[in-house]
Amino acid sequence: MRKFRCLAICALMVLGVISGSASAAASAASPKYKKEIIYATLGKIITIDPHAQSNTEHNYVFRTVFDTLLRYDWGSATINPRLATSWATDDAKIYTLKLRSDAFFHNGEQVKASDVAFTFKRAVGTNSANAVGILIENMELVNDFEIKIVLKRPNVDFPYLLCNPNASIMSEKAVKDDPVEGPGVGSGVWKIDSYEFGDYFRLVRNDNYWGEKALAEVLTIRYIPDATGRLIALETGEIDVCQNPDPLNVKKISETPGLAIQTWDASTMTYIAMNMSKPPFNNKDFRMAIAHAVNRKEFIEVGRNGYAREAFNFWGWSQYGHNGGTTPYEYNLDLAKEYLAKAYPNGGAKFEITVAPDRKLIAEFLQAKLKEIGIEVTIAETDYAGLTSTLAAGRHEATAYGVGLNPWGDTIRNMICPGGANSAFINDPRINELMDTAVTELDDAKRRAMYAKIQQILYEEAPYVPLYYATGFLAVKEGISGIEFHMGSMHNLSYIHMVEN
Amino acid sequence: MYRYVLKRLLLMIPVMLGVSLLVYCVLDLAPGDAVSFLAPADATLEEREQIRHDLGLDRNVFIRYAEYMVNMFHGDLGKSYLTGRDVFKTFAEKVPNTLYMGFTAVFISVILSIPLGIYAAIHRGTLRDNASMVFALFGISIPNFWLGLLLILYFSLKLRWLPSGGAQRPESVILPAITLGFGMMAMLARTTRSSMLEVINQDYLRTARAKGVPERVVINKHALKNALIPIITIIGTQISTVLGGAVVTETVFSWPGVGRLIVDSLNSRDTPQVTGSVILTTLFLSFIVLLVDILYGVVDPRIKAQYTSSKKRGKSVGADKQKVSA
Description:
The complex is a heterodimer. Chain A is an alpha+beta fold. Chain A contains 16 helices and 19 strands. In chain A, a hairpin with a 3-residue loop joins strand 8 and strand 9. By secondary structure, chain B is mostly helical. Chain B folds into two domains: about 70 residues, no CATH class; about 220 residues, Orthogonal Bundle (MetI-like fold). In chain B, about 80% of the residues lie in helices and about 0% in strands. Chain B has 14 helices and no strands. The radius of gyration of chain B is 25 Å and the shape is flat. The interface between A and B is large, with 47 and 50 residues.
């Protein structure tokens, strides 16, 4: 009996050692992740429908809750499969996409080709997805997991558009069953748990996701509009990520124990637009005078505390067809004065610049710099709603503004062709024709040559003075990782996580 | 009394019409509209016009207003341009947060300021009185946003006792309520002091003292009750301010209340949401003011008697008219 007891104790000890080392190994292999990540934004979220809004904060939700057919990888600059396992086209007009058969919406319905067709039909006439919807002439369901999309005219950029959050695939059944909450049913890594517009969005991990699952269990997106409030909330530990800290605080944050700064090379370009449709900027010499009187480096210091890269031409640095060889406007006050003398032989040059409060500093700096060469600038400040309507109606003379430029070539169309966000009101038949041809051109070299030519025309016509691409910042708790950065700041938070000590 | 209340209720109609017309027209005159927030950045002019047409913004402002008011009298405050959600429902979602913060602030202000005001009045002209009033003066002078930031820096950032914002945790209300309550407290303490000073030397109090009533009872029962009318007025005004004017505090503390809803909607030119919220706030404020007026009668029998006598006068005038016509 005693022997038996000894044997039992020994056996237990051995088991204990084995299980102990096994659990130690397991814990070493699988780190413990923070259960909830709280991400504070400066903009509020007001819809769960990807066809209703398309801005940074909404896209945080859409990119995590929904899947798109394809996925653009900024690191490798390639398009990759997502819900579509493959895609093919011979003429950039008919695209055939095969879908994966193991993807399910959060309501349990399988993702099928009919949902894709439903999504793109629904997109027509919507606020944010119309641009995708109107390209499509018709769609043919080959089977449950294969769809043929026929475009109205060839478009080589179409696969890129399928990567955008506004092309998120929605559940036909969910939307038809419940028009209010149904548009929020996606098939993504996260699903919506609860929300209050203008306050918070609580997402929970989708444990039935077909791909890699999220590491955290809950992702809360909180609206804290005040920059100081956001930063304090980070410092007190109430939030884990603070969107867009003030560039003036970046150094301080990076020196604070427990906090860190994560950066990305953003593709958002800040520029000065000059309205070519009316005086004084219908005068090319006057535009050239402004272009040569601007020292981009100084503007980077003033506008971004030094955190930006110079924009040498009016094209996204990561955009297809970017021609780094285009001559940048030389900062040369003598040259600027020469152009000014041509435009205003008797002096008296003046104009008004209309800006929102966040770019007033740029306008004030421009005002001071142009005064040195005899140009009088007055500043008209208005809020965002006022500015957008002023620009759309062409009531402005000049403005300082920004644009997020995507990786595809045609992304800049709305800035340099009539309509859209073309606040310089440039309407050059050469550019219009080249843009129309380039988007249908399958030959890479020919297409790039067209875009290079457009950039040269833009340089010569000077509708815009490109200033800089601002460096993007997130202030985070040390240990936060897994954010897939988007150059237009619409990051994918699907795999955001924090390893707990 | 009932006639008085009915008259006051009927008076709310022109007030609401005036306020809503003003808000509607001012929003229409402001540059920009909700299209800026609904249309994507690359929307063409035609697409923007289509959205404007869909929202009805291309029609005359007075026609839109008239339609809005007709719908309002049918109990429909419309749908938000931005979210497409029912205006009343959105407003109602935010009201509990605002009331929670507001009433906590009023509670803090009342329990601190009335004793402070009484204390200052009793010790009139002394250092203690001056110290109390300097403290109250601070409360009036310090801007809300600044005090809010100071409290956040100390209690959230330095001591880590309380959250710096949001409404997710029960204790989140403490700092915003103190911020809001501090300004109220100052006003209320000063009013209590001056009101108490008016009654504290009245003959009936002297009589009470002469009859041997303890000083505590003289002050708390006889004096305070008669000094309450201006205090109730201030409390009523403060409750009104809380619902419509706690914008700054709500912004500093990221508090999801009515004030922030109105400001956000205003910035995005969401006319139905702004107009609906303002109408509901006005209605609420009018009810509070009416309630305060009724409370006067409860506190002071002389005022109640005035209500009643005016009713009787009305009746007798009516009777006289009948006699004349007969």
